[in-house]
Amino acid sequence: MVSLDEELAKVQRQLHVLQWRARDITERAFHEALRRTELPGFTGEAVQKIINQVLEKLEESPFQMTNYASKTSGAAIIRSKTSPSWIGSGRVFWQSLPLMAYMRPPEVILEPDNHPGNCWPFPGSQGHVFIKLPVAVFPTAVTINHGIPAAAYHADSISSAPKDFAVYGLQEEDDEKGTLLGEFIFTPGQAPGQTFQLKNEHSGFIKYVRLQVLSNWGHPDYTCVYQFRLHGDPSHDGDARGKLSA
């Protein structure tokens, strides 16, 4: 007999796939329309900002959990505590085609634009990113998005995807250890966005989160992270004073 959790997970995967398709269609339409139309004063950065705003709206759904690791909500990368970006040839490949002719910064994982190649690459198979949250949050789940639907997966995109990863919650920026909130495995070929329930839900409120990628699916040069989301409940009336468990 299928459990309720399994049914919910199945529905969630289906929603992620439908959402990705809607985002992909919208983004392609925007790029095509802007390519055919000359808009004086519109820079690439301005166009991308408009696209991101539209994609953010697509994420607003009664079925969508609030993302507290969103750049538009005020989340920020602490560069001094984050792995360096992969330099290499300056390109990330998908289906043997170069997709990224310039280096994407780690901040890209806080944004909703997840078209193939728009990811943050770090060298090798192990790396980490340190994120300051906009508010103190009681963490309940995280979502990793690799940006590519199952039907479009190719050896290049699979091998550079994160595999084993861990999530740590912290209350202070100078906390070197943090509290382990869970270790998980991201599986390419399923939904582009996969949500994982945190195993240490009684850890208290956190102000920072560290994503620690422990391995990828075999790429020898780099690992690509498209989007990281943190879900939970914001603090109220000083609840953030609660300490993390050891």
Automatic annotation (TrEMBL):
Q: Does the keyword Nucleotide-binding apply?
A: no
Regarding the membrane, this protein is recorded as: Single-pass type II membrane protein
Q: Enumerate the subcellular locations listed in this protein's record, separating them with semicolons.
A: Nucleus inner membrane
InterPro entries named in the record: SUN1-5, SUN_dom
Q: Which domain of life is it from?
A: Eukaryota
Domain (SUN) spans: 74-235
What does the entry list under GO cellular component? nuclear inner membrane
Q: What is its main location?
A: nucleus
Q: Does the keyword Membrane apply?
A: yes
Q: Which UniProt keywords apply?
A: Coiled coil, Membrane, Transmembrane, Transmembrane helix
Quote the protein name from its UniProt record: SUN domain-containing protein
Species: Gallus gallus
Q: What is the lineage of its organism?
A: Eukaryota, Metazoa, Chordata, Craniata, Vertebrata
